[in-house]
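Hey, can you fold this one?
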Amino acid sequence: MEKFFELFKKNLKTQRLELRILEPTIENAKLVWEAIKNENPNDFAFIHYSPKYDKPLPESLDETFETMKNYAEAFKFNGVLWYVFHDGELIGFHGVSYNKENDTVNPGNVWFVRSAWGHGFNHEIHNLLEKITFEDLKIHRMSRQCMANNERSQKSILSSGYHLDGRLREYAKLSDGKWTDHLIFSKLKSEYNNK
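Sure. Predicted structure:
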């Protein structure tokens, strides 16, 4: 766990992106609020980035601040949460955690503003996470998840060499209150160099 935090719990860079850890302050909440306040919540059906995790996006600066505090607390002991910047602009959010019992890194809790979709940013982040996970930390397994009706995420995960491990039936609730299945994918260290 110490090695995980040493390599992950800091600001990182990919070819085009900066992954920054932002403390939950009102100034940082303003950065996030400015990035999301004009987004269409209907574009974020698979996200629960709100104070009570009951809607896709916060609807005010105060809710954004509360959300940042909730996520910081949730990631405090076994993970890290980055805010993703491209050309100095905040475009998203990406988390990663570590499960010591099964020696698994779990990326997740991801969103990007609509204008950042389709540019390969998430793929770029996962390439960095896989390098650190498998090459630097020699961790056994990396797991990814998505909701079963999130076809864009499924396609991205499968095209990155992950295997579908299973389906958790009616495991996740969408913002409209409907339940959906959750898919679990994995890649083993032994499969990393075979991509």
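The chain is about 30% helix and 30% strand. Let me know if you want another pass with a different chain boundary.
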